[in-house]
Amino acid sequence: MHPPERKIREWKPALPHEQVEACGFGGIDTGPGYCMSSHRRIKMNSVTIQEFCDSQRISRAYFYILAREGKAPRSYKLGKTTRISEDAIREWIAAREAESMEVAA
């Protein structure tokens, strides 16, 4: 006796084409800024504190020092996770550049 044939549905992205990238089947390598859901990667417009620290090559401890001084990028809570938007990162970099120009002048 053979097992019943499985019907394969056509995959349709839940988001616009620009935001969805196929990752192949069984791939768990989501990388920073991606959320794994049913064998597809969805580009997120925010990062976790750890992803931010990794991208800027700073430690989490230094991030929290910056936050205490009011110099960390804006962040928001999403469930239990604190996230930083790409816009907040761009603004933070621009502010750090402006701050370094003032010191140099």
Structure, briefly:
By secondary structure, the protein is of the alpha+beta class. The chain contains three helices and six strands. The strands form two sheets. It has a three-stranded antiparallel sheet, with no helix packed on it. Strands 4-6-5 form a three-stranded antiparallel sheet.
Task: Describe the overall structure.
Pfam families: HTH_17. InterPro entries: HTH_17. This is Helix-turn-helix domain-containing protein. The protein has 105 residues and is of the alpha+beta class. The chain has one domain (17-104). 34% of the residues lie in helices and 20% in strands. The protein contains three helices and six strands, in the order E-E-E-E-H-H-E-E-H. The strands form two sheets. A three-stranded antiparallel beta sheet has the order 1-3-2, with no helix packed on it. A three-stranded antiparallel beta sheet has the order 4-6-5. A hairpin with a 2-residue loop joins strand 5 and strand 6. It is elongated, with a radius of gyration of 20 Å. The termini are far apart.
Low-confidence stretches: 15-30
**What series of H and E elements makes up the topology?**
EEEEHHEEH
Please list the strands of the largest sheet in the order they lie side by side.
1-3-2
What radius of gyration results from the CA coordinates?
20 Å
Q: What overall form do the CA principal axes indicate? A: elongated
User: What is the rounded distance between the termini?
Assistant: 82 Å
The helix-and-strand class reads alpha+beta
InterPro entries: HTH_17
Protein name: Helix-turn-helix domain-containing protein
Pfam families: HTH_17
Domain Helix-turn-helix: 48-96
